[in-house]
Amino acid sequence: MSRLENASVRRVRDALAAAGLEDRVIELSETARSAEDAAASIGCELGAIVKSLVFAVNGRAVMVLVAGDRQCDVKKLPAVLGLDGKCKRADPDLVREATGFAIGGVAPLAHATDLPIAIDRSLSRFATVYAAAGHSHCVFPACFDELVKMTNGTVSDEIGI
Predict the structure, then answer these.
(1) Which helix (H) or strand (E) holds 27?
(2) Three-state SS for 18?
């Protein structure tokens, strides 16, 4: 069976269609589990990879979409999302519960729950960015404006460091 028919990837494909975007999920022969792996598999700059990271702010799952060559400023993330409290990396169980995806294939959309999402504006440096599509061997391309629209995320200059 093609990875494109995997249930998690199918959710992403359906969400893209619901957002008015054609089915553009790409199955890679090499893993895209990390930003470095994804960039090497796709043949693009590291910064063009969208890292979909899940954190917990006072136990509530939140997501940040940050460029592959950046890290998230966890001290600023709660304020960017209009939340109070300390931010810490979510454990694998919270990631799966909140998103419905396993770490290594967490997509920026089609989540199991409604997550507040912050987006690193530095992703706009690239005409095309690549995000995980529900499996460690699947990604989808998008432009920055499409990413913002389909995730309804809050764009910030402060979270990507």
Answers:
(1) strand 26-27
(2) helix
Count of other CB atoms within 10 angstroms of residue 47: 20
pLDDT, tens only, 6-49: 889 999 999 999 988 887 999 998 888 889 999 999 999 999 99
In this structure, the number of other CB atoms found within 10 A of the CB of residue 40 comes to: 16
Domains, in order of start, for the chain: 3-155 (3.90.960.10)
pTM exceeds 0.90 for this model: yes
Alpha helices in 3-81 (DSSP H): 7-18, 35-42, 77-80
Which phi and psi angles does 122 have, rounded to 5°? Answer: -65, -15
- Say how many C-beta atoms besides its own lie within 10 A of residue 131's C-beta: 26
Q: 11 is written with which tokens?
A: 């959710």
Place of tokens 């089609």: 110
Q: Is the dihedral of CA 16, 18, 19, 23 positive or negative?
A: positive
